[in-house]
Amino acid sequence: MSAMNRKLIQTLVETISKQVEHFNKTEIECLIREFNVLVGESSIPGRAAHGLDRGRFRSILHNIFGMTDDMIMDGVCRMDGMSVLLRGTLDEKIKYCFHVFDLNGDNYISREEMFHLLKNSLIRQPTDEDPDEGIKDLVEITLKKMDHDHDGRLSFADFERAVKEENLLLEAFGNCLPDTTSIERFEQHVFREQPDQ
Amino acid sequence: MGVSLTRAAQWTPASSGTGKLESTPMNESLLKEILRFVEQFGSQHPQEAEHVFEEPLRWSTTLEASDFKTDYDISDADVQSHEKDSEGRPLLQLSPPTVYVRSFSQLSKLVHLADDKNLEEVRACLEENRDPVVKILGPSFAVILENEGANTDVLSLVGKVKEQGEDMEVKVKLFLLLQNMDNQLLSKCLKEISERVRLDPTAVKTEVELLKRFCSEGEKRLLKLVRYTSDYEFSNGCHAPPWRQARGEICYLVIEPCDTETLYITCSTAGVFLNGGEEEESGYERTSDTYKDLVTLLKSRSPHFAENANKQDFAAQELPSTQKIQHVESVDAEEQGQPQRSYEQQEKNVHEKARQQHTPNKAGGEKKYEPCPRWKNLGIMTLISHHYSKAEEKKPAKSSGEEKSGLNALLSAFCLCSKTPAGAAPVDAFSESSSESEEEEEQPERRPESNTDLPSEYWQIQKLVKYLKGGDQTATVLTLCAMMDFNLMQETCQLAIRDVGGLEVLINLLDTDEVKCKIGSLKILRKISHNVQIRRAIVDMGGLQSIVKILDSPVKDLKALAAETVANVARFRRARRTVRQYGGIKKLVKLLHCVPNLASLTANQAKDVEVARCGALALWSCSKSTKNKGAIRKAGGVPLLGRLLKSPHENMLIPVVGTLQECASEESYRIAIQNEGMIKDLVKNLSSDNDELQMHCASAIFKCAQDKQTRDLVREYKGLQPLVSLLSKANNKQLLAAATGAIWKCSISMENVAKFQEYKALETLVRLLTNQPEEVLVNVVGALGEFAQIPANKATIRKCGGIKSLVDLLTGTNQALLVNVTKAVGAFSLSSRLDGVRLVWSLLKNPSADVQSSAAWALCPCIQNAKDAGEMVRSLVGGLELIVNLLKSTNNEVLASICAAIAKIAKDKENLAVLTDHGVVPLLAKLTNTTDDRLRRHLAEAIGHCCIWGSNRASFGDAGAVAPLVRYLKSKDKAVHQSTAMALYQLSKDPNNCITMHGKGVVKPLIHIMGSDDETLQEAAAGCVRNIRLLALANRKAQLFY
């Protein structure tokens, strides 16, 4: 890697470290390097932060985080997305998850959205008359538990309160965060094994 | 043949010499068997068939001369065979109506000739030859057999026989054939028994119980409902009204299978069949075929039942047959009044049930085929059980239907119990005793009679469990969260989760890789595991193994939850053992690694501390088993606990101190606790505000303070004052017991007593002598006993009225308490209170050796200090005899104390005379060979004092007590020397004793003792030597002058 390149990375690290609090500079540098490796475009300086195409990124998320397709959002393309995924506090994660689940972006998770998110979560038994009945019921149970203001939909406040009460509800409608072992593996891979050049 | 004929065949009561075989089906088949044997004998064993009987078999036959054909000499009515024996007698001779037969070949020919009357022939033959084997083989052979005993070892028999000539060899072969036949007959009989028996009320009841179990096992559920139409049970075990009982009907059942319509079933002695339902009119009509039992009926009616019954619940019955035999034998033993304590309670219940079934059977008037009691003595029970277990292995699914006779019911009851996991390991070989007093009893399950009045939670939980089973991880987590919203501490919810099969699902989740599912599952499990039955169910399902596996997960939340669940589940022995066996102790100890006492913890460290706390909780539960204590120590848990002990948090300290005090019952722990400097922390926590923590600290000190260094440490760290101040918490009895215990043990050191005096502990303790539970009293009295070693304290106790309370306590029954009370009373010499002495004396009758010895010790000062001790002792009727009899005890401590008491009593001449009359001298002499120095000392003292009366000196000499006493002088114990020297001095007043002593070389050690500082010792030794010397001089003189 050329000296030129290194300089560019340094400046990038400086700017990013001002925005993102969970990583120190070396870690940011490592992440950028990893990113460059992944994108395979390290020779073109300056485009690193934007050069990752969707397909590639998706496969990375698949491989490293074991995420499913519908969970991948645009937002994570930025470094602070990475920060939430790897080092996020509970509040950050709640915010992030809520946005993931809020499919239409109206700042509420509605019954329909829940239904959509959960529709594949129960095994259909051939004996059931209405295959969707179980899921509807599950949605009702969830609403009863999480909808504190009883308006039939989850606002951010509802969601936040429910998750604070019971952390397990953070990813209530689907897996959208890497689990601890994946995080560890990833961090090890990026921060420690990166050869110093 | 002998055994089966004498035991198995049913004879009519024989008033005259010959009984008749009853014409029962069993005898019928026996006869047929014997007939076939005889028929084939000629062709199958030609050599043996030719053997001539010692005595002919003789019976009155119905055969006539005309029946005989060739090979026979027929003259008029008489018939003789051509074949003759060595002495020329025909092997078959008929002189109507009597026939004589001398060999098996002739027998089998005769049987062939008799044709259709052959059965009668065999019957007549057997009836008139009650002991055919003796006749065939001769009385000499029978004698050999008798000498060999019942378990004839064939090889040794053959060896013996060989010495007696060739002829015998055939006899032996014949004998073996007959014996073989005998065995076949017996097993045939047994098969007969098992096939012929019909249904009876107890068998039906057992089966109904069995089916009821299948109604409520969640996923394994085979039936919805099993119930009697009427719950009223007549005394004979039937539920049917008497006028239907007359038709052999036992009861009516309503069974709802899972897949078909409700079945209305009649159970009758002839079998089970469907009836017309609950309508009045047609209700009793039979509407189906008759089946031999309920299971068969259900299988034919409900495919679901048939399918699942085979694979699930009956499968467990295919156990190795040896185990069943064990069970049978254990019943046998129990019937003879030896309860098998080692079985788990659950199993015992089954024993009970089985016995209940057994008894009405015996009492009932119905005809039954039970083996006669003699069979048991023959060890045929084992045979039977072999037979049954074989039958059951062949057709396990049907086995429960075969329970028809009482015996069979018994056996299948054991099959049932072996299905429960408790039964799978019938004998609990693990000895885990110690502090398991809080061990929870296995409680009989309370189940709702039917599921009509189930709470709404039940259905909601059932629905959730359905989603749990069929959901992916997202749905699972949502469902688990919803489930947490129920009140999981409520029993209905706990049992509902189990009954709808939720427990299995929760446990299965633990084996997945989904952290969130595991967390959710554990969050529920840790709550519902507060329930005893759930705990057992978790262990039974193997859930504890999965939980233990999670203990070393990298996720801290998981570890903490798992440890907390272990803490709840491991409340009973089997669970604790499981934790240990799956390496749980090591993992739990590992959880204790954390940095507990930083003032400000990061979130991460706080989690570590929480994990450690849960680990300590789990260890606390586990530490109630002795083996686990050892495992904790080996895993390096003690220093870690020591570190956690410095934690400032009460919720951490309680489990840590709890574990420590539990473990402090082991000496290795006490040493470790001392060495790790934990006493300081324990003392510090005595001053906490938390009663529970204080209690555990006090009880840890109680256990550790047996060691002197620990006692000193407690004082050094100023632990005595907080202990005394704990005495004011009179409402918390557990705390009070622990605090008084600690005070008792600490007061063994006199320095501590002095400190306690400063804090006015004594007055408080005396006040605690009344209206306290026994565990407090034991400790209080123990402490008073120690305090009373200082004279000033005695006065205080007297002044506070402690004596009266103590004497009152003498009437108790708690042995630990009595030991302590007698010790305390002993310190006071109750001479002023005759009633006290009387009570203490009567404690000598207590069966506990500890109580006996402490009572005897307490008596010593009483007798010594009483003004008119002789009169006082005499006033206790039978007291002296009691004392002398206790010299027959085997406990050295008792013996020593009694010897000490005798020494005191013997100071009064009259009493000594009574003692002598009761034979005290030979009893004391018998004890002289002991090596126990404590006993030696008091024994020698007693002997010394007993010498004073009459001819006792000579009697001791005659009883051989002198020589052993001389050996006592070699002991290292000064006190032994002193009392021995006194005794020898007394004994030496008898010339013969002097000779013995001298012969044993007493002079040298005595001279040595004369150089002692102790004046009495000097005097006694010198006196003894003087006596010996005087005798020698007298002898000399006698020789010189006469």
From TrEMBL, chain A:
<dbReference type="InterPro" id="IPR002048">
    <property type="entry name" value="EF_hand_dom"/>
</dbReference>
<dbReference type="Pfam" id="PF13499">
    <property type="entry name" value="EF-hand_7"/>
</dbReference>
<dbReference type="InterPro" id="IPR011992">
    <property type="entry name" value="EF-hand-dom_pair"/>
</dbReference>
<dbReference type="InterPro" id="IPR028846">
    <property type="entry name" value="Recoverin"/>
</dbReference>
<keyword id="KW-0479">Metal-binding</keyword>
<feature type="domain" description="EF-hand">
    <location>
        <begin position="89"/>
        <end position="124"/>
    </location>
</feature>
<keyword id="KW-0106">Calcium</keyword>
<dbReference type="GO" id="GO:0005509">
    <property type="term" value="F:calcium ion binding"/>
</dbReference>
<feature type="domain" description="EF-hand">
    <location>
        <begin position="134"/>
        <end position="169"/>
    </location>
</feature>
<protein>
    <recommendedName>
        <fullName>EF-hand domain-containing protein</fullName>
    </recommendedName>
</protein>
<dbReference type="InterPro" id="IPR018247">
    <property type="entry name" value="EF_Hand_1_Ca_BS"/>
</dbReference>
<keyword id="KW-0677">Repeat</keyword>
TrEMBL record, chain B:
<feature type="repeat" description="ARM">
    <location>
        <begin position="878"/>
        <end position="920"/>
    </location>
</feature>
<feature type="repeat" description="ARM">
    <location>
        <begin position="760"/>
        <end position="802"/>
    </location>
</feature>
<feature type="repeat" description="ARM">
    <location>
        <begin position="1001"/>
        <end position="1028"/>
    </location>
</feature>
<dbReference type="InterPro" id="IPR016024">
    <property type="entry name" value="ARM-type_fold"/>
</dbReference>
<dbReference type="InterPro" id="IPR011989">
    <property type="entry name" value="ARM-like"/>
</dbReference>
<feature type="repeat" description="ARM">
    <location>
        <begin position="542"/>
        <end position="584"/>
    </location>
</feature>
<feature type="compositionally biased region" description="Polar residues">
    <location>
        <begin position="7"/>
        <end position="18"/>
    </location>
</feature>
<dbReference type="InterPro" id="IPR023231">
    <property type="entry name" value="GSKIP_dom_sf"/>
</dbReference>
<feature type="region of interest" description="Disordered">
    <location>
        <begin position="426"/>
        <end position="454"/>
    </location>
</feature>
<feature type="compositionally biased region" description="Basic and acidic residues">
    <location>
        <begin position="344"/>
        <end position="355"/>
    </location>
</feature>
<feature type="repeat" description="ARM">
    <location>
        <begin position="960"/>
        <end position="993"/>
    </location>
</feature>
<protein>
    <submittedName>
        <fullName>Outer dynein arm docking complex subunit 2</fullName>
    </submittedName>
</protein>
<feature type="region of interest" description="Disordered">
    <location>
        <begin position="330"/>
        <end position="371"/>
    </location>
</feature>
<dbReference type="InterPro" id="IPR000225">
    <property type="entry name" value="Armadillo"/>
</dbReference>
<feature type="region of interest" description="Disordered">
    <location>
        <begin position="1"/>
        <end position="25"/>
    </location>
</feature>
<dbReference type="Pfam" id="PF00514">
    <property type="entry name" value="Arm"/>
</dbReference>
